[in-house]
Design brief:
With about 210 residues, the chain is α/β, with parallel strands linked by helices. It has a single domain (about 10-200), classed as LmbE-like (Rossmann fold, 3-Layer(aba) Sandwich), CATH 3.40.50.10320. The protein has six helices and seven strands; from the N terminus they run E-H-E-H-E-H-E-H-E-E-H-H-E. The chain has a seven-stranded mixed β-sheet with strand order 3-2-1-4-5-7-6, with helices on both faces. Strand 2, helix 2 and strand 3 form a beta-alpha-beta unit. Helix 1 runs parallel beside helix 2 (about 50-65), helix 2 (about 50-65) runs antiparallel to helix 5 and helix 5 runs antiparallel to helix 6 (about 175-190). The longest helix is centred in the first third of the chain and has 14 residues, at about 50-65. The protein is globular, with a radius of gyration of 16 Å.
Length: about 210
Amino acid sequence: MLGLQLPAGHLEVLCLGAHPDDVEIGCGGTLLCLAERDASIRVHVMTGTPERAAESTRAIGLFAPTAKISFAQLPDGRLPAYWNEVKQGLEDLAVSPGLVLAPRVDDAHQDHRLLGRLAATVWRDALVLHYEIPKWDGDLEPPTHYVSLTPEQAHRKVELLDECFPSQIGRDWWDDELFLGLMRLRGVETRARYAEAFHTTKVRVAL
């Protein structure tokens, strides 16, 4: 299996979430990895009540202590009706990241799907990796890229999810076995113990 390496040195990273906890569920382990290198991380979330925003702000501060986070406070579950506001809000971030982490373009949730599609149009020169979020819809597809995680990083991700999002504990889909199980499955697929998986449609390879 051929491994691709991000450029050495400073890296500008933008993480996009439709809802508080999207980024943490979809790429929390990757954030733990990025926090160990020279990276500036910006997180922008499109929806969120004050309670949910506070949970995500605390979580991001633990996943990536130097990251900056902001919220657009648009209505949850209604982002397609606010297409102009979402697009303008992304453009108004006025950032030029080398790496963008966003929801999948074919995610079953309409908010995720819109944000994933717009990310790739707003940041055409960045590497855009679309993370996956397990849900009852059963919409997971074979990924194209993986980030390997150590057992410590995988378990730390789950610990932080439970610690920082008390509002979600008790939901039938919020389960340590689900989060660890998906990372274990993706690890098997890339010959690692654990991994997070991503989808992308365009990668420029420098030889």
